[in-house]
Amino acid sequence: MESKYKSLHDPHLSGYYNRKDVLKRLRKGGFITEHKKIICTLKDFDEYRQYLTTIKLDFEKNYMREQQNLVKQLLELQEQDQLPEGIRTSELREWLLEEGCKDLRDMERTGRNRYIFSKSYPSYYPL
Fold it and tell me: What is the pLDDT along the chain (127 residues), one digit of tens a residue?
């Protein structure tokens, strides 16, 4: 994806772009709509959609990898007879977290944000 700076997407300039005189100039120039939406080319829009799809697929791939690791840990514990008797799934998750999977708790906290905010392109189009 192209990493060219686009000032209309800069959140630090939103105060400037929301001034009445600037909004009027941007509307007359064809840069924004009446509802303060930035007008972009079809190419820009397609690149952004592709970027969002890449983020989604990356998240799903990492999520599946984490789930497979959890299942692998569970099977190893089951083979070693280290699972408590009559434990429910929710209790098992908590028990796994307490028994040495503390990094998993951190991964769950960051979760989706880790993948979404690791990219450098703005996540919105309106001013």
Answer: 667 788 888 889 889 989 999 999 999 999 999 998 888 888 888 988 998 999 999 999 998 888 888 888 877 877 787 766 776 767 776 766 666 554 554 555 555 454 455 444 444 444 4
Number of domains in the chain: 2
Domain shared by 69 and 110, yes or no? yes
In a domain, 126, yes or no: no
Instruction: Say yes or no: 46 and 104 in one domain.
Output: yes
Say how far apart CA 60 and CA 54 lie, in whole Å.
Answer: 10
Residue 104 DSSP class = H
Residues 36-70: b if buried by 16+ CB within 10 A, e if exposed? eebebeeebeeebeeeeeebeeeeeeeeeeeeeee
Q: Domain limits at 110?
A: 41-120
